[in-house]
Amino acid sequence: MHKRKKAASIVLASLLAISLTACGGSGGNDSGTSASNGNKNSKVTLELAISKSSQDSAFIQQDILDEFEKQTNISVNLQLIPAEQTTTVLQTKLAVDETPDIIQYNLASAITDLNLERNFEILDNESWASRIVNKDVLSAAGHIYSFHVSQDTGMQGVVYNKQIFADLGLSIPTSYEQFLAICEKIKAGGITPVFMPYKDAWAANIWPAAAFADFVAKNDPSFFDELNSNKKKWSDIPEFKTFLEQQYEVYTKGYTNTDVLSDSYDMAVGKFLNKEVAMMFMGDWLIEGVAEQDPSMELGVFPIPSSDDAKLGASPLGGQLFIPKKAKHLDEAKQFLDFIASKEIAQQIVDSKGYVSNFSDVTTPELPAYKQDIVDNYILPKKTVLTTDAYMLVDRSELYRLLQDQFAGGLTPEEVLKSWDEKFSQLMQDKGVSGF
């Protein structure tokens, strides 16, 4: 591996190791050939449930699914769930025993949303697990519960079109005032400055999740510990109200799409490809999605400009695969993981996506330009901060709905925080967290 890329991997690994508080173990073999030993006489179809917003996922590329079926006579049927309904639909399926064989979700969210330990298989002893380099990003409560070929964290900030910035002579803003000035220039150029797809409530949390975390890291490092022990509340930090006001102001100043509550995330790639929008508060996974459609389009990401010289948000690794304990085809689901964990297929995925490999025998390729920019400008100089979500012990979907209510004109930022205080306290109490 190139020395700089190796250094990047080490830094990413160390960053990611603290993104989840729990660690875990694993077990393994270095090929997925065991998958080809399936019973070829009876056809099995695996049900893989995945958010519609993740339909460009590395694991469901058609050529990979076709090769898996060719080797094993096991097909994979995708259950595409609307992004804004993903959590609710999966919670229902798990509760009423309509369980998919495989689920793609985020580990940090699965812990709080989907009752991870009760509902999902421990994967410590799977054939691929001993080859994992960074087990922490797949682990909770001392065990591996999820699968991914990558150890990349998602970087969250403002995704932007570099060409539009260059054409208009714009540079990356380092303050909120600079950001508004840039929005004004982009709007004057006939382009929508910011795309807000807040029909998907989670998207409204990208700005606050990074802004809150950046402020806390710089000004009140013990806040999340005190929050999670009921010694402080969300509304205790006046700046949180300011950050919510900022995001809303970008909308009220006319710098966004008009229909923020009816436009969804699955429209985002098209908006960028058509050069209709210049920016979006989002993770770098959006850049990957655009690059798949048009590799020549140059996008980058910079920190949410909520305060001067803010750091880039780093979220826990996303998009892992989980196998429910009640999967109808448990063995075949594990064969699918064996297959995509095989050295050949994992290398294929890592190469096609530009991932930092999480397998000891799979090589990290030259990173895409946007990812190398992140490594050089943010990760290596330590200008990243774990987003608020990394510290949450409960489901945040009610917060997301409150943020939607703000954009519907129903709640002020102060009312959002007060309402979330009440809901958060109840959720922590329901979970049995000490102090609530």
Written overview of the protein:
This protein is α/β, with parallel strands linked by helices. 41% of the residues lie in helices and 14% in strands. The protein is built from 17 helices and 13 strands. The strands form 3 sheets. Strands 7, 8, 9, 10, 11 and 13 form a 6-stranded mixed beta sheet that branches. Strands 3-2-4-12 form a 4-stranded mixed beta sheet. A 3-stranded mixed beta sheet has the order 1-6-5, with no helix packed on it. Helix 8 packs antiparallel against helix 10 (238-252) and helix 16 packs antiparallel against helix 17 (413-431). The longest helix has 19 residues, at 413-431. The protein is globular.
Which structural class matches the secondary elements? alpha/beta
Tell me the Rg in angstroms.
Answer: 21 Å
Could you tell me the number of beta strands? Answer: 13
Could you spell the SSE succession in H and E letters? HEEHEHEHHEEEHHEHHHHEHEEEHHHEHH
- How many angstroms separate the termini? 49 Å
Strand content: 5-15%
CA-based shape: globular
Unreliable segments (pLDDT under 50, ≥5 consecutive)? Answer: 1-11, 13-40
Percent of residues in helices: 40-55%
Number of helices: 17
Largest sheet: 6 strands, mixed
Oligomer: single chain
Query: Mean pLDDT, nearest integer?
Result: 89
